[in-house]
Amino acid sequence: MAISTLAARGVPFLELAPANHGIKREVLEEIAALIDTGEFVNGPAVGEFEAAFARYCGTAFAVGLASGLDALRLALIAAGIEDGDEVLVPANTFIATLEAVTQAAGRPVLVDMAEADWNIDPLQAETAVSSRTRFIVPVHLYGQRANMPALAELANRRRLTIVEDACQAHGAGRDGLRPGAHAAAAAFSFYPAKNLGAFGDAGALVTDDARIADEVRALREHGQRSKYVHDREGYTARLDTIQALVLLKKLAHLDEWNRERASIAAVYLEALDGVGDLELPPVAPRSSPAWHLFVVRTADPSALADFLRERGIGTGRHYPVPVHLTAAYAHLGYRVGDFPRAERHAERVLSLPIFPGMTQEQADAVITATRSFFGRG
C-alpha cells in the first residue's frame, strides 16, 4: 500500500489497543467480581501474579510493587545499601535508574556504554570501581540484556552486589538466562507501554534470596511484617489488586507478544541495513532481545522524525539528554565529554514504531518512508 493511502490512519509509535482488546472482557469480569469482594489491597490476585511471574522469570520469589522505581529502590535498600555507597550505573539510561540510587541514599557513579550492546561497558565499569563502590546496577536498555557474565565476574572479584534494572526487558534472554540470574534482585516496571504493561503504574522485584524478598514485602507495607508491628521505616509501595488481575491475564500472552515484536525487528534489521547513515541496534551473540524499543541512530534524528510524522508515522526519542547532563544530576559534577559514547548516542537516537499487533503493512510503511528520507538526493 502506498504511503499516501496508509497515512490516512497513520502508523502510531505505540498502540496498546491490539494487545489489550483480547483480555478486555475477562478483565472487566474480574474487576466486577473484585468490586463485590472489596479486596482492592493485597487481594488474592497479588499473590497469584507474584507466583506466576517468579515462575516465568525462573526465580524463587517475586514481590509485586507500585512501580519499577519502587522495585529498584527497595531492592537496593533490602540488599544493604548504606549512606554514601557508590553504585555503578550506565550513562545511557532513563533517569529513574539514578533516582533509585539517590533515593536509597547511594551515590551514582556513571559508566560509559559499550557499542556492542548499547549497555554498560564492563571494561569501563572496572576502572570506575573505588574503595566505596558497593553495587552495580546494569540496565537492560531497550530490551537488550547487558553483558551479565562479564559484570558478574567483576562483581564477584571486587565483592560488589548486582541489582538489575530490567524495566525494559520482560522476557529478554542472553546466554540462556533471563533477568535475575546473575543478581541479588532484578526490578521490573509494568508501566502501560512496557512489554508486560498494567492499566496504570505497577512493578515487581524478582530474586532467589528469601531474605531480600521478605524485606521488600515489609518495606512496601510501611515496614511491617505483621499488622502494626514496624521493625523499620517503610513505604506505601504495594501492587494494587486490580493491576495484579490485569498482569495475570497479560502474562499468558507475553511470549507471543515478544515474538511479534521480534518479527517486526527482524523486518527492520533486514530492510534498513545499509540505508543512509542509519546505525541499527546491535544484537549481542546468544541474545534474544525483548525489543521493547527499536532504536536507530542517525546524524539528524529530528529531521527524520519530522519527515516520518508528515507521513503519519510516529517516532520517539529515548533519551535525547544523557542523565549526567540533566539539571537534576548536575550536583554529581559531570561535564560534557565525560561519557563520549553515551553523549554521541543521545544526540543520534530515534525510536521507530514497534508493538504487538503491528502489521506488515505498517512496518512496510515505516521502511518505505525511511528509505525515501535518505533517498531525497
Give a concise summary.
The chain has helices spanning 3-6, 17-21, 24-37, 44-57, 68-78, 96-103, 122-128, 148-158, 210-219, 241-251, 254-271, 301-310, 340-348, 360-374; strands at residues 61-65, 86-90, 107-111, 133-136, 161-165, 173-174, 185-189, 203-207, 224-226, 229-230, 287-288, 294-297, 349-352.
Structure report:
- The chain has 377 residues and is an alpha/beta fold.
- The chain folds into two domains: 21-251, Type I PLP-dependent aspartate aminotransferase-like (Major domain) (Aspartate Aminotransferase, domain 2), CATH 3.40.640.10; 253-374, Alpha-Beta Complex (Aspartate Aminotransferase, domain 1), CATH 3.90.1150.10.
- It has 14 helices and 13 strands.
- The protein has a seven-stranded mixed beta sheet with strand order 1-8-7-5-4-2-3, with helices on both faces. The chain has a two-stranded antiparallel ribbon with strand order 6-11.
- Strand 9 and strand 10 form a beta hairpin.
- Helix 4 (44-57) packs parallel to helix 10 (241-251) and helix 5 packs parallel to helix 6.
